[in-house]
Amino acid sequence: MKYQKIALGVLDFYNIIKYLLIIKMCQSNCDNYKNTGEVIEEGGGGESSGIETGPTSAMYQKTDMVAGDLYYAVEQFLPVLNKLYVYSGSTWNVSGESSEFTAEVQLDTGELVEVSPNNDYYVKKTNTAGDIGFVGVVMGPSVNAGDKVAIAYSGVHYVACVAGTYTRANYLRPNSTDGLASQTTSSADEPFAKLVDSSVVNNNGGIVLAFLHSQETF
User: Fold this and answer.
1) CA–CA dist 107, 26 (Å, integer)
2) Which of 190, 184, 181 is nearest to 215 (CA)?
3) Which tens digit of pLDDT belongs to each residue from 68-88?
4) What is the total count of domains within the chain?
5) Is 218 inside a domain boundary?
Protein backbone atom coordinates (compact mmCIF):
# COMPACT_ATOMS: atom_id res chain seq x y z
CA MET A 1 0.00 0.00 0.00
CA LYS A 2 2.85 2.40 0.88
CA TYR A 3 4.52 1.84 -2.49
CA GLN A 4 1.18 2.24 -4.26
CA LYS A 5 0.69 5.67 -2.64
CA ILE A 6 4.23 6.67 -3.60
CA ALA A 7 3.55 5.65 -7.21
CA LEU A 8 0.30 7.60 -7.30
CA GLY A 9 2.06 10.62 -5.85
CA VAL A 10 4.74 10.49 -8.53
CA LEU A 11 2.07 10.17 -11.21
CA ASP A 12 0.12 13.16 -9.84
CA PHE A 13 3.33 15.20 -9.73
CA TYR A 14 4.08 14.27 -13.36
CA ASN A 15 0.55 15.25 -14.46
CA ILE A 16 0.82 18.60 -12.66
CA ILE A 17 4.16 19.36 -14.36
CA LYS A 18 2.71 18.37 -17.75
CA TYR A 19 -0.33 20.61 -17.17
CA LEU A 20 1.87 23.58 -16.25
CA LEU A 21 4.01 23.07 -19.36
CA ILE A 22 0.88 23.06 -21.56
CA ILE A 23 -0.28 26.33 -19.99
CA LYS A 24 3.16 27.86 -20.51
CA MET A 25 3.25 26.81 -24.16
CA CYS A 26 -0.21 28.26 -24.74
CA GLN A 27 0.75 31.58 -23.15
CA SER A 28 3.84 31.88 -25.37
CA ASN A 29 2.20 30.80 -28.63
CA CYS A 30 -1.47 31.73 -28.54
CA ASP A 31 -0.73 35.25 -29.79
CA ASN A 32 0.69 33.72 -32.96
CA TYR A 33 -2.64 32.21 -33.95
CA LYS A 34 -5.84 33.66 -35.29
CA ASN A 35 -9.17 32.54 -33.89
CA THR A 36 -9.36 30.04 -36.74
CA GLY A 37 -6.11 28.41 -35.65
CA GLU A 38 -4.19 29.76 -38.65
CA VAL A 39 -0.63 30.90 -37.91
CA ILE A 40 -0.07 34.60 -38.58
CA GLU A 41 3.04 36.74 -38.78
CA GLU A 42 5.48 36.84 -35.85
CA GLY A 43 4.59 39.62 -33.46
CA GLY A 44 0.94 38.65 -33.08
CA GLY A 45 -2.23 40.61 -33.54
CA GLY A 46 -2.37 40.17 -37.30
CA GLU A 47 -1.01 43.66 -37.92
CA SER A 48 1.09 42.56 -40.92
CA SER A 49 -0.37 40.60 -43.84
CA GLY A 50 3.03 39.60 -45.20
CA ILE A 51 1.99 40.92 -48.64
CA GLU A 52 4.26 43.52 -50.17
CA THR A 53 2.50 46.69 -51.32
CA GLY A 54 3.55 49.36 -53.79
CA PRO A 55 3.09 50.69 -57.33
CA THR A 56 2.88 48.26 -60.24
CA SER A 57 6.07 49.70 -61.74
CA ALA A 58 8.04 48.70 -58.63
CA MET A 59 6.57 45.18 -58.77
CA TYR A 60 7.82 44.65 -62.32
CA GLN A 61 11.31 45.79 -61.29
CA LYS A 62 11.64 43.19 -58.53
CA THR A 63 14.27 40.50 -59.00
CA ASP A 64 14.00 38.43 -55.81
CA MET A 65 10.62 36.77 -56.45
CA VAL A 66 9.75 33.12 -55.98
CA ALA A 67 6.66 31.27 -57.16
CA GLY A 68 3.70 32.07 -54.93
CA ASP A 69 4.85 35.56 -53.88
CA LEU A 70 1.98 38.04 -53.49
CA TYR A 71 2.07 41.76 -54.27
CA TYR A 72 -0.76 44.26 -53.84
CA ALA A 73 -0.29 46.96 -56.48
CA VAL A 74 -1.65 50.35 -55.45
CA GLU A 75 -1.94 53.11 -58.03
CA GLN A 76 -2.56 56.39 -56.19
CA PHE A 77 -4.28 58.19 -59.07
CA LEU A 78 -5.82 55.12 -60.77
CA PRO A 79 -7.49 53.01 -58.07
CA VAL A 80 -9.25 50.96 -60.78
CA LEU A 81 -5.82 49.36 -61.32
CA ASN A 82 -5.35 48.31 -57.69
CA LYS A 83 -4.90 44.52 -57.87
CA LEU A 84 -3.49 41.56 -55.95
CA TYR A 85 -0.83 39.85 -58.07
CA VAL A 86 0.69 36.40 -57.63
CA TYR A 87 4.04 35.40 -59.12
CA SER A 88 3.91 32.18 -61.15
CA GLY A 89 7.66 31.68 -61.29
CA SER A 90 7.77 33.45 -64.66
CA THR A 91 5.16 36.23 -64.70
CA TRP A 92 2.95 38.30 -62.42
CA ASN A 93 -0.73 37.35 -62.79
CA VAL A 94 -4.07 38.42 -61.34
CA SER A 95 -6.33 35.53 -60.37
CA GLY A 96 -9.49 35.53 -62.49
CA GLU A 97 -8.14 38.18 -64.86
CA SER A 98 -5.09 36.70 -66.59
CA SER A 99 -3.33 33.52 -67.68
CA GLU A 100 0.25 32.71 -68.65
CA PHE A 101 1.23 31.84 -72.22
CA THR A 102 4.41 31.93 -74.33
CA ALA A 103 4.98 34.75 -76.82
CA GLU A 104 5.41 33.57 -80.42
CA VAL A 105 6.68 37.02 -81.41
CA GLN A 106 7.79 40.12 -79.55
CA LEU A 107 4.84 41.59 -77.68
CA ASP A 108 4.39 45.01 -76.10
CA THR A 109 2.22 46.25 -73.25
CA GLY A 110 -1.49 46.25 -74.06
CA GLU A 111 -1.20 44.54 -77.45
CA LEU A 112 -4.04 42.29 -78.57
CA VAL A 113 -3.27 38.59 -78.98
CA GLU A 114 -4.86 35.42 -80.26
CA VAL A 115 -3.96 31.78 -79.75
CA SER A 116 -1.25 30.65 -82.14
CA PRO A 117 -2.31 28.06 -84.74
CA ASN A 118 1.27 26.77 -84.79
CA ASN A 119 2.21 26.02 -81.16
CA ASP A 120 0.40 24.86 -78.05
CA TYR A 121 0.08 27.54 -75.33
CA TYR A 122 1.58 30.25 -77.56
CA VAL A 123 0.00 33.57 -78.52
CA LYS A 124 0.59 35.97 -81.41
CA LYS A 125 -0.69 39.42 -82.38
CA THR A 126 -4.12 39.86 -83.89
CA ASN A 127 -3.95 41.15 -87.47
CA THR A 128 -7.49 41.43 -88.82
CA ALA A 129 -10.19 44.05 -88.18
CA GLY A 130 -12.78 42.51 -85.89
CA ASP A 131 -10.54 39.46 -85.60
CA ILE A 132 -12.59 36.70 -84.01
CA GLY A 133 -9.44 35.03 -82.70
CA PHE A 134 -8.84 37.71 -80.04
CA VAL A 135 -8.32 36.29 -76.53
CA GLY A 136 -6.75 39.07 -74.47
CA VAL A 137 -4.15 41.82 -74.08
CA VAL A 138 -0.54 41.77 -72.92
CA MET A 139 -0.31 42.61 -69.24
CA GLY A 140 3.02 43.94 -68.05
CA PRO A 141 6.27 44.92 -69.75
CA SER A 142 7.27 44.00 -73.31
CA VAL A 143 8.54 40.45 -73.88
CA ASN A 144 10.61 38.78 -76.59
CA ALA A 145 9.60 35.80 -78.69
CA GLY A 146 9.83 32.66 -76.57
CA ASP A 147 9.30 34.47 -73.26
CA LYS A 148 6.45 33.78 -70.88
CA VAL A 149 3.76 36.46 -70.93
CA ALA A 150 0.69 37.24 -68.80
CA ILE A 151 -2.42 37.77 -70.93
CA ALA A 152 -5.36 39.65 -69.41
CA TYR A 153 -8.84 38.57 -70.48
CA SER A 154 -10.96 40.37 -67.85
CA GLY A 155 -10.85 43.44 -65.61
CA VAL A 156 -9.52 46.96 -66.20
CA HIS A 157 -6.24 47.02 -68.15
CA TYR A 158 -4.19 49.08 -70.59
CA VAL A 159 -4.96 48.40 -74.27
CA ALA A 160 -2.71 49.36 -77.18
CA CYS A 161 -4.57 51.29 -79.91
CA VAL A 162 -4.14 52.98 -83.28
CA ALA A 163 -3.75 56.76 -83.26
CA GLY A 164 -6.97 58.67 -82.67
CA THR A 165 -9.33 60.23 -80.13
CA TYR A 166 -10.97 57.85 -77.68
CA THR A 167 -14.14 58.68 -75.76
CA ARG A 168 -15.19 57.27 -72.42
CA ALA A 169 -17.99 54.65 -72.61
CA ASN A 170 -17.28 53.84 -76.27
CA TYR A 171 -16.04 50.38 -77.24
CA LEU A 172 -12.84 48.81 -78.52
CA ARG A 173 -12.48 46.18 -81.23
CA PRO A 174 -9.43 44.64 -82.96
CA ASN A 175 -7.96 46.76 -85.76
CA SER A 176 -6.28 45.45 -88.93
CA THR A 177 -2.97 46.84 -87.62
CA ASP A 178 -1.08 44.03 -85.87
CA GLY A 179 -1.90 43.81 -82.17
CA LEU A 180 -3.82 47.10 -81.95
CA ALA A 181 -7.39 48.11 -81.18
CA SER A 182 -9.61 50.88 -82.50
CA GLN A 183 -12.75 52.60 -81.26
CA THR A 184 -16.33 51.78 -82.17
CA THR A 185 -19.65 53.08 -80.90
CA SER A 186 -21.67 49.99 -81.76
CA SER A 187 -21.99 46.79 -79.77
CA ALA A 188 -22.90 45.13 -83.10
CA ASP A 189 -19.19 45.30 -83.97
CA GLU A 190 -18.59 42.64 -81.31
CA PRO A 191 -16.20 44.75 -79.20
CA PHE A 192 -14.03 43.22 -76.49
CA ALA A 193 -13.74 46.20 -74.13
CA LYS A 194 -15.35 49.44 -72.96
CA LEU A 195 -13.33 52.62 -72.45
CA VAL A 196 -13.27 53.93 -68.87
CA ASP A 197 -11.78 57.34 -69.65
CA SER A 198 -11.29 59.72 -72.58
CA SER A 199 -7.85 60.15 -74.11
CA VAL A 200 -5.92 60.97 -77.27
CA VAL A 201 -3.49 58.46 -78.78
CA ASN A 202 -0.94 60.36 -80.84
CA ASN A 203 0.90 57.38 -82.32
CA ASN A 204 0.01 53.79 -83.12
CA GLY A 205 0.65 51.62 -80.09
CA GLY A 206 -0.35 54.23 -77.54
CA ILE A 207 -2.39 52.85 -74.65
CA VAL A 208 -5.84 53.60 -73.26
CA LEU A 209 -7.59 52.29 -70.18
CA ALA A 210 -10.48 49.89 -70.79
CA PHE A 211 -12.66 47.29 -69.10
CA LEU A 212 -12.20 43.95 -70.86
CA HIS A 213 -15.40 41.95 -71.18
CA SER A 214 -14.80 39.61 -74.16
CA GLN A 215 -18.14 40.24 -75.84
CA GLU A 216 -16.64 39.26 -79.20
CA THR A 217 -17.95 36.01 -80.69
CA PHE A 218 -15.33 33.37 -81.36
Assistant:
1) 55
2) 190
3) 999 999 999 999 999 999 999
4) 2
5) no
